[in-house]
Write a structure and sequence with these properties.
By secondary structure, the chain is of the alpha+beta class. The protein contains eleven helices and 13 strands. The termini are far apart.
Length: about 450
């Protein structure tokens, strides 16, 4: 909750609880954290630090994979050419034939132009159009990687996996057994389109941000999305247990929060909460804390049975575009950073927990300082532990089965926009659709008469 105090400071009321502050909880403790703001205007946006292009690029899989390769599932990276990227950006879906018997024999004859020699009848009226002719080397490499990783892979671009497009796959999953399966998922995904077209949305120029903040600029930072070194990531396909996937939030190199990625209730997780916290904290301290260049970021991990090893799945930007899941970004941005960390994070403007004192006497201030020193001595003996949030049985999120994940991506965008705009836009869309159908019927009748 956000409220404006008489002294001009903004009071953020954060609900703190050992497990989850969701609806239905009865034992809640409120804690007020005050921030002095020069302006008396209400808070209209989250107090995020500037998101730079360098920060976004450092969260790209191709950047951090080599650093943490031993802690990630087996994967192969394929640099993408402009021809392949043009194919992904093209409207429509044209897939190559993966049947080796029907494939033409390709050769370039040292001319730089690929040609096909077919063994079947070339006089057919409709010749097979193979889009992979423009990126033949990548097509062949994808085949090789699929065979190398056991015949099944899961694709991903620099930041996003096409999880929103699994509805179009014959397996209804990310499993790909042939290059055409990879192309189908990539071309059908809105997430992949975001990587290709909007990766730098809401980013600021690196020169506008001090180098000490957000890790500093990279040696060569692309000016536009078309200059990004795009990479196709093919990971060995395994069936992940979604109940043991977790999202972790790091601010000022301090692990502040851990939560489930799958919004369903799992009874067995609650007795394991301390074990989950310990495993992830140890992994962060040993692998990520001092090696990732940015001080604040979000990372995803997977802890399969017997729950002794932590696998790094992804690293996400410290930005509003990253889903905070069971937290809110306002909570994360205003959580207290323990002593020893840089508490003056740019995301909050003032050190967390600092209240703006009024005009007090020197004696009152001295007494308060003595009390604070005593409290600090007591707090030094208490180690800081990140909060772990799990879905409780009575949480509303546990009953979200009526709304399948990524359901908005399974319909045309016009339909989704109309449905979210209230009855007016939806009625207008329905009438427009009727007009289209009537026009098609009239055209069909005219053709029959002719």
């Amino acid at each position: 909750m956000v409220s404006l105090k008489e002294d001009g400071s903004v009071a953020f009321t954060r609900v703190e609880q050992s497990e989850s502050p969701k609806a239905g909880d009865t034992e809640l403790t409120d804690k007020i954290v005050d921030f002095n703001l020069e302006s008396h205007e209400p808070l209209t946006s989250l107090p995020f630090p500037p998101v730079t292009r360098s920060h976004v690029l450092r969260c790209s899989y191709h950047y951090w994979h080599e650093l943490y390769r031993a802690s990630t599932p087996k994967a192969r990276l394929i640099p993408l050419t402009s021809a392949f990227l043009d194919y992904l950006r093209e409207d429509g879906i044209v897939l190559p034939d993966d049947d080796a018997d029907n494939q033409p024999v390709w050769s370039d004859n040292d001319s730089g132009v690929y040609s096909a020699d077919r063994t079947d009848d070339d006089s057919d009226d409709e010749a097979l159009l193979d889009p992979s002719a423009n990126f033949r080397e990548i097509h062949i490499r994808i085949k090789e990687v699929i065979a190398e990783l056991g015949g099944k892979v899961a694709p991903k671009l620099n930041w996003s996996a096409p999880k929103d497009a699994t509805w179009i796959s014959t397996t209804n999953s990310m499993e790909c057994r042939a290059p055409s399966d990879v192309y189908l998922l990539l071309k059908s995904s809105d997430f992949v389109t975001h990587d290709l077209e909007y990766a730098f949305d809401d980013c600021v120029e690196d020169r506008d941000v001090p180098e000490a903040q957000m890790g500093g600029p990279m040696s060569t930072t692309p000016e536009a999305t078309h200059d990004i070194p795009y990479t196709l990531v093919l990971r060995k396909y395994i069936t992940l247990n979604p109940s043991v996937e977790f999202r972790c939030f790091v601010r000022c190199r301090t692990l502040l929060g851990i939560c489930q990625r799958d919004l369903n209730h799992f009874d067995f997780l609650f007795p394991m909460a301390e074990q989950i916290r310990s495993r992830i904290q140890s992994f962060f301290d040993e692998k990520l804390r001092e090696t990732f260049p940015d001080e604040s970021f979000v990372f995803d991990v997977y802890i399969p049975p017997p729950h002794k090893r932590v696998w790094l799945i992804d690293i996400n930007p410290w930005a509003p575009r990253t889903d905070p899941l069971l937290f809110s970004w306002l909570e994360i941005l205003t959580m207290e950073v323990p002593d020893g960390s840089d508490a003056s994070d740019a995301s909050v403007g003032k050190p967390v927990g600092v209240e703006q004192r009024g005009k007090e006497s020197a004696e009152e201030i001295e007494d308060e300082d003595e009390d604070e020193d005593e409290d600090e001595d007591e707090d030094e003996d208490i180690p800081f532990l990140p909060e772990v949030r799990l879905i409780k049985k009575d949480d509303p999120e546990a009953y979200g089965f009526n709304t399948p994940q990524y359901s908005a991506h399974k319909l045309p965008k016009d339909v989704v926009d109309a449905s979210t705009g209230g009855p007016g836009p939806l009625r207008e869309f329905a009438n427009h659709w009727k007009e289209i159908l009537a026009r098609q019927d009239n055209e069909g009748e005219q053709e029959e008469e002719d």
